[in-house]
Design a protein that fits this description.
The protein is mostly helical. The chain has 21 helices and twelve strands.
Length: about 475
């Protein structure tokens, strides 16, 4: 089951065609933090109930970052067997990180939430590191297929969406790999806020790993193979707040002294630390409630001259995707998982580098524009930061409006009759009018009807002026229907 979830979610991030989302999109929606942010109480309640019955199997089966750590730890165990030892939980660090996480979540400090959340961490690793490698492999197959006169594959652009976020993703992967290689589930049981939160529930789970002391020979194999470092063979106790129910201890025990079972009167069980009782359960409940087609890029002009790459203008208000409702909704609901960024077929979305909204998606039109018929980002968002919309709704959502810089416009300078922005505006919001109303022979310049403009960016993207377009889109804090 862990393999199914890990492969499925990874493919969901790698896929740039949008096909797999139809089949695998639900896997993102059952992740804990996206479910909380989407106010999906059914999923949150189901995960809590799952933990109360089976223990922290969410961490070992459903969470892709947890499974990735297990994979790295497995390679570590190949090098040196019986590598782990029992260690007491660093409670002050666990609860401090959880407290900071909840406060950041309530205060809308998305960048801090995304740095700590496990699903977000896996998302940026998959999008910024794995997906470019996946695309390069696809391009190699496309080249080979082309030589064989086959169109089974098509080439796609591989480009740097955000250098700061790539650096963060690489650092995250390296840190997690080192921790998992050396200590197994160190991150999950020390830093991960979701793991700490679920630990409140796992203490009360019905099914647990339990000792049968009469069969135990104190061989210590269970402790030496526990990647959560939560089994003390000397006292025959298990810290259930850290146990992720991987079953390694049971498979390694040669005497049948461990079992995953319901409580037995004859079984000596323990948590390895005082049970916090009902108070911890209530605290956990309170915290859960609070937290509540690849476009071809033209590099030449008519095949005669190389074009300088476009550069993003400085927008006073960042552009957020249609369906996000407002910049505030995006800031408070987005988990920064990068799924919408990885799925955008028009290369419009990229992670923000703004410290307050770090890694949350923003729009820019250097490589494409937001096509009115595309609703991919609203379809894949698991957290409710981008509400599902249909094509008809999208054409009526105004996320911003175009602004003309006449100082750079070719038509306004009288150099040529351009009008590219007016010809290609899908909303018909741009009209070419004489710069001098009293002189019909004066240069024609673009005028934007702000009431009709939806901010799709077709004008900005298709403007021939380089490196900054003579017309650009300014974002709106709150979206509106027109």
């Amino acid at each position: 089951m862990a393999s199914v979830f890990f492969i499925g979610i990874t493919l969901l991030f790698l896929d740039f065609t949008g096909v797999l989302h139809v089949w695998l999109g639900w896997m993102a929606k059952v992740q804990f933090l996206p479910a909380v942010m989407a106010l999906n109480f059914i999923v949150v309640a189901a995960l809590a109930a799952l933990t109360l019955v089976f223990g922290r199997i969410y961490c070992s089966v459903i969470c892709p970052l947890g499974v990735m750590q297990d994979l790295i730890a497995w390679f570590g165990k190949k090098k040196r067997k019986n590598r782990y030892t029992f260690s007491r939980a660093i409670s002050w660090l666990r609860y401090s990180v959880l407290g900071v996480f909840v406060v950041a979540l309530a205060a809308g400090v998305g960048s801090l939430v995304e740095l700590l959340a496990p699903y977000s961490a896996f998302g940026r690793i998959a999008t910024m590191i794995f997906q470019p490698l996946w695309k390069l492999g696809n391009n190699v197959l496309a080249m080979l297929a082309e030589r064989a006169d086959s169109y089974a594959f098509y080439s796609v652009d591989v480009w740097m969406k955000s250098l700061p976020v790539l650096v963060i993703a690489v650092v995250t992967l390296v840190v997690l790999a080192v921790l998992a290689w050396r200590g197994g589930r160190t991150y999950c049981n020390t830093i991960c806020p979701v793991g700490t939160l679920l630990s409140f529930f796992s203490r009360f789970s019905l099914l647990k790993v339990r000792f049968q002391t009469d069969k135990c020979r104190s061989c210590s194999l269970c402790t030496k193979n526990c990647k959560a470092s939560c089994i003390d063979f000397k006292s025959h106790t298990v810290d259930y707040s850290r146990c992720v129910v991987c079953g390694d201890c049971i498979s390694k025990c040669k005497f049948g002294a461990l079992s995953y079972s319901l409580p037995r009167k004859s079984s000596a069980t323990g948590t390895g630390r005082p049970d916090p009782g009902k108070r911890s359960f209530l605290v956990a409940s309170a915290m859960v409630a609070t937290a509540a087609l690849a476009q071809e890029k033209k590099k030449v002009d008519g095949g005669l001259a190389e074009l300088e790459d476009k550069r993003a203008p400085k927008r006073k208000t960042p552009l957020t995707p249609p369906g996000s409702l407002s910049a505030k909704n995006m800031a408070t609901r987005c988990t920064g998982c990068q799924l919408c960024v990885s799925e955008c077929p028009n290369d419009v979305l990229r992670p923000s580098t703004d410290l307050l909204h770090l890694m949350q998606p923003v729009m820019s039109y250097e490589r494409g524009y937001c096509r009115p018929e595309c609703t991919r980002c609203s379809e894949v968002c698991p957290a409710g930061a981008i509400k599902p919309i249909d094509k008809e709704e999208k054409t009526a959502i105004q996320i911003g409006h175009a602004v003309v810089s006449l100082d750079h416009c070719l038509s306004a300078q009288g150099n040529t009759e351009c009008g590219n922005c007016a010809r290609h505006c899908p909303a018909g919001a741009i009209e070419m009018v004489p710069s001098d109303p009293d002189d019909d022979l004066s240069p024609y310049v673009p005028v934007v009807n702000e009431e009709a403009c939806i901010g799709c960016g077709a004008c900005e993207h298709l403007c021939p002026v380089r490196p900054f377009s003579a017309i650009f889109v300014e974002g709106h804090e709150v979206h509106r229907n027109i």
